[in-house]
Amino acid sequence: MTTVAAYAAPAAKAPLERTTIERRAVRESDVLIDIKFAGICHSDIHQVREGWGEAIFPMVPGHEIAGVVTEVGPGVTRFAVGDRVGVGCMVDSCRTCENCRAGLEQYCIPGSTMTYNAVGKDGQPTYGGYAETIVVDENFVVRIPEGIGLDEAAPLLCAGITTYSPLKHWNAGPGKKVAVLGMGGLGHMAVKLAHALGAEVTVLSQSLRKKDDGLRLGADHYYATSDPKTFEELAGTFDLIISTVSAPLDFGAYLALLRTDGALVNVGAPEEPVSLNLFSVIGGRKTLAGSSIGGIRETQEMLDFCAERGLGSEIEVISADRINEAYERVLASDVRYRFVIDTSTI
Q1: d(CA 60, CA 117)
Q2: What are the φ/ψ torsions at residue 285 (nearest 5 degrees)?
Q3: What was the pLDDT predicted at 244?
Q4: Alpha-carbon distances of 24 from 5, 122, 175, rounded to whole Å
Q5: Which residue from 1, 10, 202, 207 has the fewest beta carbons nearer than 10 Å?
Q6: Residues with Cβ within 8 Å of residue 107, at least 6 apart in sequence
Q7: What per-residue confidence (pLDDT) applies to 117?
Q8: Contact 123, 24 (CB under 8 A)
Q9: Do 202 and 179 meet the contact criterion of CB atoms below 8 Å apart?
């Protein structure tokens, strides 16, 4: 075991504070990663504040982790000391169920082991990336290609793969009209990725405040959802809508924007239950769906795709002592578009 510095929430809704945690010794197939940057995801805030249910404290959030390998276990074959690597939202799974064998570890039937706020197979709580180092089995580590900075790459480990996976699954590409609902940490990556995949991209945002950014990042069109005319003008337009917002929606209104056989896919997760009139999907054979992150193989594919096209997250790098301030700014939508912690400041 090694003692390292970290930022943790000692209790639900409590401010994060500097502390120390224990990291396990490097096992046969483990890699020890010196964390360089850790993204702040809205999911971190939901979990620190127990918005998604009872949580484990003290909690060290962070599942957008970019760093450098400093030690490998004797059985490691994929990585060497000095490699640039990343860790996303999960650090283990059963590895034997149908989904795991298919490379869909994020849908592990017994349940994946999340990077933080979970209990590993050793019975110990997992601690995330707001820390100096992390030890992870090599099978849940991905390589960050040259050509993309570790700071810009960190948010790709959640925001990037969470939007890339449904865009690929629902065949976003040339000839497809894709709408991105919400222009935040997830939404801005959805815009970049959908554009890079060749789709015609529309941003649906509460206001036109970020219109210039949306168009710069690859959107072809930008509409305000606060304007009722938007829903009249765009009725029956889209093949796919990716909803990145974590507030309850009027699903009927957004489903009406889909073409026949279109899909509205949720990657944002509201804390409250939502209601739906089923005629909204029956008429037009529409799909209301959800999507999680991607598997390890798809996460590597996404990183390679981004590196080839020079895509990274739009970031604001902060020191660790500003984490609590950053949380408040995320809740106020005052970030363009992802806070990334410089972990050398922990």
Answers
A1: 8
A2: 45, 50
A3: 96
A4: 14, 10, 49
A5: 1
A6: 99, 292
A7: 97
A8: no
A9: yes
Q: Name every residue whose Cβ is closer than 8 Å to that of residue 181 and which is 6 or more positions away in sequence.
A: 187, 204, 205, 225, 241, 242, 243, 244, 245, 249, 254
Measuring CA to CA, which residue among 154, 130, 156, 134 is closest to residue 345?
130
69 to 30, 34, 279, 281: CA distances (angstroms): 10, 6, 52, 48
- Specify the residue for token string 């959908």: 194
- Whether residue 31 contacts residue 136, with contact meaning beta carbons closer than 8 Å, is answered with yes
How many other CB atoms sit within 10 Å of the CB of residue 324? 15
Please name the amino acid found at residue 251.
F
Cβ atoms within 10 A of the Cβ of 307, count?
18
Question: Averaged in consecutive runs of 10 residues, what is the pLDDT profile of the chain (346 residues)?
Answer: 97 97 97 98 95 95 98 98 98 98 97 97 96 98 96 97 98 98 95 98 96 97 97 98 92 97 93 88 96 97 97 97 97 93 98
Q: Whole-angstrom Cα distance, residue 25 to residue 31?
A: 10
